[in-house]
Amino acid sequence: MTASMQSADDLVLPFEIKPLGVRGRLVRLGSVVDDILHRHDYPPSVSALLAEAVSLTAMLGAALKFDGKFIFQTKTDGPVDMIVADYVSPGKLRGYARFSAERLAALGKTDQPSLLGNGYLAMTVDQGPDMERYQGIVPLQGDDLTAAAHSYFEKSEQIPTRIRMAAGPLFQRGAKAESWRAGAIMVQHLPREGGSSPLPSQSGDAPEGAGEELQENDDWVKARLLLDTAEAHELLDPQLSAEQLLYRLYHEDGVTAYPAHPLERYCSCSHASITEMLARFPADDQADMVEDGAITVTCEFCSTVYRVEPGELKPD
């Protein structure tokens, strides 16, 4: 391990296992994801789902090499019909989930495929107003978020990728409420210059009926099998640093950890932005929104309540 020990929480840690031709990122979320979740009254199953979505968003968004935004969004027919999370470089996170309490209670299950149902997952890279957006969409058909992310990389990026994620509450001695945590780790195989892809392939010249797939690259097989040994409690343990976890997994081949990217919760809402948004509505619609002498708007991301007086919407 070549990097010095860093803070254990709220970071994305890039790393490389050079002998295996593998690069990756590790996400550890503590107070950031706890803050995001405790601004809402989510059931535990919805909190865990959103926490994993936020950690995945941080892991993928941290790959941006420019000032921009990475947006993660699901739209499905399940009890949790929408999840939105975004990462704004260099390290700002937010997210929320929309769900039906009635359908969730009737479901009686807490696994991700049941919560999500069928629909799609969209991942969007927004490079700013002067650049085109890039968007990748994968179907959600009885999948969890990890399986959907694997499908995204296989079909859109065509990079051999392995991901593990975990989220859950931690009860600390003397605390009145649980503290939520989340973690994620990803490895990707990048062939050395002149090397072949580690994806299994089939020769077009094989005799008819042979149908035998070539073996995956041994280095990649080793890297992903080692990643699969990472357990949920290791991704969430506040006493186990990101560097220590990497060492546990890949010390045999030598792992290089690079400087971590710190993460923080943010929200772009403000009284001014809410007022500007409401001012775009026709006067009749504005009048219909007024209750008790004002228009009340609650931010979906941070649950901040804004009270806008009708007089604030009149043109100068």
Structure description:
The protein has 2 domains: 11-193 and 217-265, Hsp33 domain (3-Layer(bab) Sandwich); 271-313, no CATH class. It contains 10 helices and 14 strands. 29% of the residues lie in helices and 29% in strands. It has helices at 31-38, 44-61, 101-107, 112-116, 145-157, 218-227, 232-236, 242-250, 271-279, 283-289, and strands spanning 11-17, 22-29, 69-76, 80-88, 92-99, 118-126, 134-141, 161-170, 179-189, 256-257, 261-262, 264-265, 295-298, 305-308.
Total strand segments: 14
CATH H-level homologous superfamily name of the largest domain: Hsp33 domain
Give the second-level CATH assignment, the architecture of the largest domain: 3-Layer(bab) Sandwich
- Structural class per helix/strand content? alpha+beta
Which value, in Å, is the CA radius of gyration? 22 Å
Low-confidence stretches: 1-6, 193-214
Number of helical segments with 4 or more residues: 10
CATH topology of the largest domain: Hsp33 domain
Order of helices and strands: EEHHEEEHHEEHEEHHHEEEHHEE
State the major sheet.
Answer: 6 strands, antiparallel
What is the strand content?
Answer: 25-35%
Measure the end-to-end span. Answer: 61 Å
Helix content: 25-40%
Number of domain units = 2
Instruction: Report the average pLDDT across residues.
Output: 88
Coarse shape: globular
Give the C-level CATH assignment of the largest domain. Answer: Alpha Beta
